[in-house]
Predict the 3D structure of the following.
Amino acid sequence: MERRFNGRVAIVTGASRGIGRAIAGRLAAEGARVVLCARDAGLLKQTVEEIERTGGMAKAIPTDLRADDAAPRVIDFTQAGYGQIDLLVNNAGATKRGEFFDLTEEDWADGFALKFFGAVRLTRAAWPHLQSSGGSVVNISGVGGRMPGAQFTIGGSVNAALLSFTKAMAEVGIRDGVQVNVVNPGSIRTDRYRRMLEASAAQQGIEPAEAEKRIIEGHKITRIGEPEDIAALVAFVASPEGRLLQGALIDMDGGATKAI
């Protein structure tokens, strides 16, 4: 594999599983020294060991990005371990689905606390270092920010806020020499997707494979994505070949987003 990130240091949040884990692995495989951040210390340790077994370099800091002091602790940890920051991937955060009238104030506050405010705080804390290195920020949002639905009022709102934040910071980045973009995944084969698929299959009385076929046909998409699909795109965006991208809202969803 091409080593486009030799000598560079990347922070990946939500890196213990799913998309974040795949991104951390891809960047490490391409030569980056990676700092992994998530709440589950055990899964983080497994991910670091997996990266090291394949010749990569990684460190992990278990933390909850909803805490006010989490962002500076992640930055201090990275600086102490590697002495620089070249790439920040804000991936952490899942939001609760459900009927609007069943969602509580706490559900809404929690949805914004991790995915949106976690990204805001970490971007703020990392910015001076990214400015020094001419680095990059890649936010992982989701198609719900552009294609909201009744069962996704929290997630759609959080994702839309993250898209707006990306556009605003991209303008700041032009001034300060920092690249800022956002990737919008569609349906990706994560543990969360598998649980949803199994529940849907059970509800319909069909096999998961048939339930997935109906999802693909109903959403009019090419297929369900893999975490590695998103990881490959992030690696391109943050690589020298992707440097012209600035403030881009990139949908990687198999065609789910129908809006212009």
Q: What stands out?
A: The chain has two domains: 9-188+226-252, 189-224. The longest strand covers residues 179-185. The first helix runs from residue 18 to 29.
